[in-house]
Amino acid sequence: MSRYDTDYTKMGLATRAIKVGEAREPITKALNTPIFETSSYGYETAEEYDEMLKRGADWEEDLFIYSRTTNPTTDAVRKKVMALEGSEDAIICSCGMAAISNALLSNLNAGDHVICSDDTFMCTSSMFADILPAKGIETSRVEILDIENIEKAMRPNTKVVYLEVLSNPQLKLANLPAIAQIAHKHGCKFIVDNTFLSPIVLKPLQLGADIVVHSGTKYYVGHGDALCGIVAGSRQDMDKVRYYYDNFGSHISPFNSWLLLRSIKTMPLRVKQQSANALALAKWFETRDEVDFVTYPGLESHKQHELAKQIFEDGVFGGMLCVHLKDGYEQMCKFVDATKIPPVATSLGDVVTLVFPKSAYNNLIRISTGCEDVNDLIADFTQAFEQM
Ligand SMILES: Cc1ncc(COP(=O)(O)O)c(C=O)c1O
């Protein structure tokens, strides 16, 4: 057996992130996976092609017919994702919303009911407010910190419980093992969005979720240069999702897959550094007179800090924190405008720190902590406070 055929899937997280999925290219012996910019794959004879079509109908590993369904560069990403999420199968989509809509629509039909947590990303909220109801799917939004609310919202036709593990933007942490129990007791699929934490901080499939989705645009990509969506779970669940993904045309481009291959290799390093920086920043913000309160799961003041300690891995708490200043909108704007390192921008999970002020949430300032030197960030936020 060649050294290049080694199974890395049982090795440590960092080794998996770097090594899994990328086989040496057999003709040139190139170590890095090429960008396979091809829509189709050529076969020798009609008979061989016909045989491939029959096998492809049930989706088969390493079988390539058309790149809307499978592409070798994207498949290398899929294998890395499976190794990091601990899943039997995974699907790499064009963006997070493609991942979410495919995961939901493959599990919900007209007449079904779905329960969703009350704090979610804007477009996810639109799915539950407008898009699903318009297709005849009943939706309920519930506050999930009191898990009794989920039990109370159950109906005979409830098919799915959906939530964000650490919610956008309020950073509420869901008790995954407890909620999984309720969902499964009622025969529901438990689908969770783990965008805000990444598999480096928490692996939902190990805590009772059936399907995990991500906006891979965030921590997976990590450099703000590509969009990506991830769905992971059992082969059976992914076959259902894949049918929608393929027919809706939710695939990612081979070039973006290649960016992901490079990015995922450093995801463990990045997320650990972002988490260390976020904890230092959160503690520092708590000492400032201008600040009313800080929300960060690594702080003892966070309502689910004990839960975070139980279910997060490696003693890290992620890179997302929220700061509420004592004074209102004007102070929020003055503070944000005076910063020099973080751009004022949406999105999160990048190596660069991003600030995202939200007047709609009581002037919350969401900070996606990057990998800069934390002393420089603290110095920058200090001078911004001094200018207020
Ligand atoms: C929690 C969460 N889920 C999903 C999405 C959607 O991801 P995308 O922009 O990649 O479609 C976002 C985007 O910010 C998000 O924050």
Strand adjacency order, main sheet: 1-7-6-5-4-2-3
Ligands and ions found? pyridoxal-5'-phosphate
Please estimate the helix content. Answer: 25-40%
Total domain modules:
2
Please identify the oligomeric state.
single chain
Number of strands: 11
Largest sheet: 7 strands, mixed
* Strand residue content: 5-15%
CATH superfamily of the largest domain: Type I PLP-dependent aspartate aminotransferase-like (Major domain)
Helix/sheet category: alpha/beta
CATH class of the largest domain: Alpha Beta
User: What would you call the shape?
Assistant: globular
How far the N terminus sits from the C terminus, by CA atoms, comes to: 65 Å
Radius of gyration: 22 Å
Low-confidence region ranges: none
Would you tell me the overall average pLDDT?
96
Number of helices: 13
SSE succession: HHHEHEHEHEHEEEHHHEHEHEEH
Using the coordinates shown, work out and report the CATH topology of the largest domain.
Answer: Aspartate Aminotransferase, domain 2
What is the second-level CATH architecture of the largest domain?
3-Layer(aba) Sandwich
In words, what does this structure look like?
The protein is an alpha/beta fold. It folds into 2 domains: 3-36 and 71-265, Aspartate Aminotransferase, domain 2, CATH 3.40.640.10; 268-387, Alpha-Beta Complex (Aspartate Aminotransferase, domain 1). Helices cover 38% and strands 15% of the residues. It is built from 13 helices and 11 strands. It has helices at 13-19, 46-56, 72-85, 96-105, 122-134, 148-153, 176-185, 235-248, 254-265, 267-286, 305-311, 329-338, 374-387, and strands spanning 89-93, 113-117, 138-142, 158-164, 189-193, 211-215, 229-233, 291-295, 320-325, 354-358, 364-368. α7 links the parallel β4 (158-164) and β5 (189-193). α1 runs antiparallel to α3 (72-85). The radius of gyration is 22 Å and the shape is globular. It starts with 12 loop residues before the first helix and ends with a helix. 45% of the residues are buried. It binds pyridoxal-5'-phosphate. Residues 95-97, 121, 123-124, 164, 168, 193, 195-196, 215, 217, 227, 229 line the site of pyridoxal-5'-phosphate (PLP). Pyridoxal-5'-phosphate binds at residues 95-97, 121, 123-124, 164, 168, 193, 195-196, 215, 217, 227, 229.
